[in-house]
C-alpha cells in the first residue's frame, strides 16, 4: 500500500508506542481493508512468529479471565501485573470489559469508579486502518455504567461519563458527557480541586 511503512519497521514503532517510549496517544497503521493481516493483533501471526502469538494470547486470556472475577481489587492487581497503570482507590465494577489485548495502554489515576458493564477499548480495526490508543482516566473521574471509551481518549480530572455514553473524544476536566457520540451535557459538574 502506497505511503505505508514496511511491516517490520511499523512493528518496531508499535512496540515503542506500547512501551511508552514514543509520544502520541494513538498508533495508526493504514489498511486496505479490515480483513488484511496487520501483524499487530494477537489473532494474527505477525513478524514475531508463533512465540509472540502465544505470549500475546496468554496475556489476553489472563486479562479476559480477570474481568470475570467479582473482586475489584483482584482485577486491579492483575491488570497492573499485565502492564496497566492503575492508581489507588480505583473500583472496577462487575461486567466491565477492558481490552485485554494491550493493557499497557491504560492509565487510571486515583479515586476512579468504572461503572458496571463499561467497556474500555485500547485498539480497533477499521476498514482503512488499525488503531491502538492510550486511554487515560484522570483522578476522580466517574465512568458511567455500560459506556464505551474509545482508544486514544482521555477523561479529564473529575470528569463524568453518563451511563451508556459512547466517548470518542477527550472529556474536559470536570465536565459531564453523554449520548452517542458523547457530547457535553454539563461543562463543569464539579470544580476540580487544585492540583498537588
Ligand atoms: C449523566 C449523569 C451524571 C447526569 O446526572 P445529573 O448531574 O443528576 O444530571 P440530570 O439528571 O439533571 O441530567 C442532566 C441532563 O443530562 C441528560 N442525561 C442524563 N443521563 C443521561 C444519559 N445516561 N445519557 C444521555 N443524557 C443523559 C438529562 O436528560 C439531562 O438533559 P436535559 O438537561 O436536556 O434535560 C447521570 O445521569 C449518569 O448517567 N450517571 C452515571 C451513573 C453510573 O452509571 N454510575 C456507575 C454505576 S455502577
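Sequence proposed for the structure above (196 residues):
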Amino acid at each position: 500500500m502506497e505511503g505505508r511503512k514496511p511491516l517490520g519497521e511499523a512493528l518496531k514503532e508499535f512496540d515503542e508506542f506500547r512501551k511508552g517510549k514514543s509520544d502520541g496517544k494513538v498508533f495508526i497503521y493504514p489498511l486496505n481493508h479490515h480483513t488484511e493481516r496487520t501483524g499487530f493483533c494477537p489473532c494474527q501471526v505477525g513478524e514475531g512468529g508463533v512465540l509472540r502469538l502465544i505470549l500475546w494470547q496468554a496475556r489476553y486470556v489472563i486479562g479476559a479471565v480477570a474481568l470475570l472475577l467479582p473482586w475489584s481489587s483482584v482485577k486491579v492487581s492483575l491488570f497492573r501485573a499485565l502492564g496497566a497503570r492503575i492508581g489507588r482507590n480505583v473500583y472496577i465494577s462487575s461486567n466491565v470489559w477492558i481490552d485485554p489485548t494491550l493493557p499497557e495502554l491504560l492509565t487510571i489515576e486515583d479515586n476512579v469508579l468504572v461503572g458496571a458493564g463499561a467497556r474500555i477499548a485500547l485498539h480497533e480495526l477499521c476498514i482503512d486502518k488499525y488503531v491502538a490508543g492510550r486511554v487515560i482516566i484522570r483522578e476522580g473521574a466517574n465512568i458511567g455504567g455500560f459506556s464505551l471509551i474509545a482508544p486514544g481518549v482521555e477523561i479529564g480530572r473529575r470528569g463524568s461519563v453518563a451511563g451508556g455514553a459512547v466517548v470518542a473524544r477527550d472529556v474536559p476536566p470536570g465536565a459531564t458527557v453523554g449520548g452517542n457520540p458523547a457530547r457535553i451535557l454539563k461543562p463543569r459538574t464539579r470544580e476540580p480541586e487544585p492540583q498537588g
